Amino acid sequence: MLNYAIVFLISMVPLIELRGAIPYAVAFGLPIVPSYIIAIIGNMLPVPIIYLFARKVLIWGKDKPYIGKFFTFCLEKGEKGGKKLQAKAGKGLFVALLLFVGIPLPGTGAWTGTLAASLLDMDFKSSIIAVMLGVILAGLIMGAASAGLLGAAGAILG
Hints:
9 helices
């Protein structure tokens, strides 16, 4: 039970998210399906809060002592990610956000994707659905990678 709680908490941490939670679960021999579900729930839990409040909090704190540099960094990262996403996506912003969150690379994920959607003024419902589908995709990719399926496929095909 403790390991499931750790999976849940890891999946909520920015930059680590479910990309760290699922390999943790696999490393500790937890069953993949319940771990996957717990990681998705943990990763999605902060998303509505991020969408509704992160931009306001970051703008408020960007000129404050001690936290200003970090808040400015977060704002710039979200704006940069949002602009890059919008430039590549055009009218396909929903799919671009889904893929941005879903492809498990450093600096992408639910936190950054949600902040970018907020900064781009995407509507709440579309943003949440795109991020959720992206988190599910990232979970499938990380589950396959953690189970060795991607390495096995590479060995077979390569």
